[in-house]
């Protein structure tokens, strides 16, 4: 359901909508807590360490006090909202999108901290294994088309994205038009909500502040009509956009889109790697591999590069891996004695393991 008014002048601006959304947030009950979860006070900007039944770990934004998630869009289409990933879903378009996602997956698997978490970190003192990977979710956080919609637990962050446009690798305030902020009701235990996953905290800077969740949508699914989705349209103004940005303490960090991963992606935007094409073909064996290569390389006019994309010494020359790991650990909230023990061990991991992980053209880790 979308709340809207055909009289533009009667629409709220972003600042008034912020007040309205906070009222809704306060009035909706919390129904999503799993039996093993409890309300956590005083850690609104922290991430909660959660072990899943499949052995994976997620670092989840603290949503123990709220029953809603949010999504902001600077342009409002009252008829439908379909993810770009599913638009014009002919074979060649989907091939290109999926190979791009596979290249992203292969790239981040060459990043030392991500590789360490993907392979799993054994912590003997706490008898715990920390294992994390979510390549396609991280891809969506870096503006690659994917089947996931990026929800956030923060009203202010949703409003930031609703009042700013992403252009030329930066966010600019929207001056006019109609935007929209949706809220999604979590009306049952989190693990029982179809298609809803946690992205949360990862070892890439853009995930540190967005408090992000992922909602997997189906092909041609109209988000405007999805069960549990409500939206408020609002009138844009440059003044309100700028004020919303100023109210968000993490604005400069959210708005900083040019981190080391974004820079590397920019370098790869026109490249095609053999391993990514092979991976996609393994999921789609009825395809013609040769035809796929011809389309992706424009019939040989663009080279098919061997192997997979990787971070190199040059890419990571200005990345302080120890500092990044420290910031990652600082964002995790500890409540129980075991969690404190886990974090004590986890903080020491880079000094013991990073030197064992291969980087193309190995680089010295800066302390």
Helix-strand blueprint:
Layout: E1 2-3, H1 14-27, E2 47-51, E3 57-61, E4 68-73, H2 91-108, H3 112-119, E5 121-123, E6 128-130, H4 135-141, E7 148-152, H5 155-162, E8 164-167, E9 170-173, E10 178-185, E11 196-198, E12 212-216, E13 229-235, H6 238-247, H7 251-255, H8 260-268, E14 272-273, H9 274-283, H10 289-296, E15 304-305, H11 321-330, E16 332-333, H12 337-353
Parallel strand pairs: 1-13, 2-16, 14-15
Antiparallel strand pairs: 2-3, 4-10, 5-6, 7-12, 8-9, 10-13, 11-12
Structural overview:
The protein is α+β, with helices and mostly antiparallel strands and 367 residues long. The chain is built from twelve helices and 16 strands. Strands 1-13-10-4 form a four-stranded mixed sheet. A three-stranded mixed sheet has the order 3-2-16.
* Count of helical stretches: 12
Instruction: Kindly report the spatial arrangement of strands forming the biggest sheet.
Output: 1-13-10-4
- Helical content class: 25-40%
Give the C-alpha Rg. Answer: 21 Å
| Strand element count | 16
Order of helices and strands: EHEEEHHEEHEHEEEEEEHHHEHHEHEH
Main structural class: alpha+beta
Mean pLDDT: 89
Shape: globular
Distance between the termini: 52 Å
Poorly predicted regions: 356-367
Question: How much strand?
Answer: 15-25%
Question: Mind summarizing the main beta sheet?
Answer: 4 strands, mixed
